[in-house]
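Deliverable D2.4 — example input (structure tokens):
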């Protein structure tokens, strides 16, 4: 097995990320050889919900897995039974009212935890039972990977990861999480409703499938054997060349409200969604400031990683009502998930 891993760098490895958005399955694939991205392609498949995989999509994944000697599938986890807490001990879980017996969790930087319920992990496993899944990424991991690309801020800063179906809100200080909350912005009868955590056994969980950024050596499993797989600096340069469009701080050209009559319905829907996000934001701030569980210092800045749409109206509400500065970054979550899996597998 070790020899196979050493020789792997001489073959083309395909990394496939899967994310559900706007009633579509978005599949972003990158082909990596000798630590360098050689190709990239994207395919979208219409869906009738997150609990069904179209047959065309299954055939497409099978085709990719057949064409390449080494294929990895990463899925973005957008379901309610997940979160992040400060601390890594059983006491920390208890303080945050999280039942350790009902979740799988990974320590991040040895000082905070990302967790997901066994129900949600098993749901992903069953959904992709034909193709298999190599990585499952929580939005907190996507958010953390973006935060690590920026200079650590000494003052507490609130971060928002905006996805079509959800919003992830975290507060970090000096690279350490103080508060984490996940909210859904759409309803789904299958995922996001009441979860029977008590009846899910630990053995049913897919602990080995959740590979998170900056895991310790003891946490990484079999992928440790991927030694000498080329200079990943080339991968970083390629990633920067293909990177995400960064929107300048306080850019006021982010609005999506058109004056055309044909846009009225979609604009109202977006505005309603933004009101919901604003509600989640204010409730999170209230919880952070008033709950003695959190070490709360005054927050002056919000950094938004926008993977969907953010209107000028929402920005104005935050700036004017909450008196907070906003920094915006337009991102592609599907591509980020793909890049995280590449770094995790090839390190």
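Example output (designed residues):
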């Amino acid at each position: 097995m070790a020899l196979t891993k050493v020789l792997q760098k001489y073959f083309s490895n395909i990394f496939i990320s899967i994310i559900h958005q706007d009633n579509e399955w978005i599949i972003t694939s990158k082909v990596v050889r000798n630590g360098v991205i050689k190709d990239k392609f994207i395919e979208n498949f219409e869906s009738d919900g997150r609990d069904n995989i179209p047959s065309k999509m299954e055939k497409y994944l099978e085709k990719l897995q057949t064409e390449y000697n080494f294929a990895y599938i990463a899925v973005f986890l957008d379901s309610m039974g997940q979160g992040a807490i400060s601390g890594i001990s059983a006491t920390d879980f208890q303080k945050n009212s999280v039942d350790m017996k009902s979740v799988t969790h990974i320590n991040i930087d040895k000082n905070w935890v990302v967790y997901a319920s066994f129900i949600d992990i098993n749901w992903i496993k069953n959904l992709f039972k034909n193709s298999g899944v190599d990585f499952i990424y929580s939005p907190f991991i996507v958010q953390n990977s973006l935060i690590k690309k920026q200079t650590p801020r000494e003052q507490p800063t609130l971060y928002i990861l905006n996805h079509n179906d959800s919003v992830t809100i975290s507060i970090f200080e000096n690279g350490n999480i103080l508060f984490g909350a996940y909210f859904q912005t759409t309803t789904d009868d299958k995922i996001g409703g009441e979860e029977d955590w008590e009846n899910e056994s630990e053995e049913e969980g897919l602990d080995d499938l959740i590979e998170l950024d900056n895991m310790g050596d003891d946490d990484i499993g079999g992928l440790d054997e991927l030694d000498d797989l080329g200079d990943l600096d080339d991968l970083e340069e390629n990633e920067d060349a293909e990177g995400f469009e960064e929107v300048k701080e306080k850019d006021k050209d982010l609005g999506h409200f058109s004056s055309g009559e044909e846009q009225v319905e979609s604009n109202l829907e977006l505005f309603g969604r933004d009101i919901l996000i604003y509600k989640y934001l204010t409730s999170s701030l209230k919880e952070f400031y008033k709950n003695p569980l959190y070490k709360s210092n005054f927050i002056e800045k919000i950094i938004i990683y926008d993977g969907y749409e953010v209107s000028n109206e929402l920005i104005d509400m935050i700036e004017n009502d909450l008196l907070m500065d906003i920094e915006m970054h337009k991102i592609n979550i599907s591509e980020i998930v793909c890049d995280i899996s590449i770094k995790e597998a090839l390190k």
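The first strand starts at residue 13 and ends at 21.
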